[in-house]
TrEMBL record:
The keyword RNA-binding does not apply. It is a multi-pass membrane protein. InterPro entries: MFS, MFS_trans_sf, MFS_Transporter. The chain crosses the membrane at residues 31-50, 62-81, 87-108, 120-140, 152-172, 257-278, 284-308, 320-341. Keywords: Membrane, Transmembrane, Transmembrane helix. It is found in: Membrane. Its main location: membrane. The keyword Transmembrane applies. GO terms for molecular function: transmembrane transporter activity. This is MFS transporter. It comes from Streptomyces antimycoticus. GO terms for cellular component: membrane. It holds the Pfam family MFS_1.
Amino acid sequence: MAISFFVQGAIFALLVTRIPALQDRYGISDGLLPLFLAAVPILAGVGSVGTEHLVKRMRPGLVLRVVQPIVSVALLAAGSGTTVWQLAAALAVFGLTVGALDASMNMLGVSLQRAYGRSIMLGFHGAYSLGGIAGASLAWVGAHWDLPLPTLYAPLVATLVPVALIASRWYVDRQGDDQADDQADDHGAAVSMRALLPLCLVMAFAYIGDSTVSNWSAKYLEDVLHSSEQLATVPYNVYMVTTLLGRSFGDFGVRRFGAVAVVRAGALLAGAGFAVVAAAPGPWVGMGGFTLLGLGLCVLVPQTFAAAGRLFPGASDAAVARLNIFNYVGFLIGSPLVGALGGAWNYRAAMLVPMALVLVTIRYARSFTPVPAGYGDGHERPRTVDVG
């Protein structure tokens, strides 16, 4: 499973870090580019919804085994075309299948954590962060040596696809009597969106924060904190490294202190990180803020998936698929929101908005409390969930 998370992190980083090169290759205007970028998370949300219904007929492991190579080939297709319609088709396939991939991958992670009986989700997402660092580093090499996108992507895809297929042989999926019992539970249990809503909000707020860092950290350091162009590329790498470190040790924190305490601490650290960034007098203090952001935000998403699995043990696949949609909601909202506020007001003040949203997570920390057996299976009303 960790290998699949790693491969997905690398593939996604290879796409988003080479967007300027894709724009140049296809001659896409600045006005048209946001439409292409918005289409990917929208279609990914569609793919996630479709996966909720697909896993009623086939195991999540089989879905993941099929879609992960397609996502990789779609990346290569996006970098190898010559006309805009070819890019549009490749990104459409990428979006639909990456939604199915994210959903099925986290379904398997939640199922495996339940089988282990202890927190392991942060470790899986740590592998994703490591893949993201590897992908971004390879993209930097490609940009530094001015490699054409097909030359960069082709050997990597040719390596990653077989690795993912070989790793899929060891997926721990529901089989035999356990699978039949779980499928029976899935058909008999319902996912209450009222009970799931606090986790959906936490997911969206976390990705609003994450997309703020990925899309605006370089511009913020260069334009607001007056760093050099080279130094402005550092904050995102620092953020990814601290995200990896936080996720590497986060599972131990959950086992020692509990998910509620870890989520509250993560939200406080992330809020403090945004506050430091907003008040930073110079680039080095700003990078300290982005370091805190990585350590804080890194725990929220994995723990949100895990909490959904605990809340709906008889319908965890459906809960994960629905929750995964708010990944893309946050991604769609975050970057335009900060950009609009920064343009109309100023970017320091704009950083306070994702800060406030991340701090709201503390209000919903009770939703991460381990629930009794049978709770959330459709037969009891939630008693501790507060949606405002």
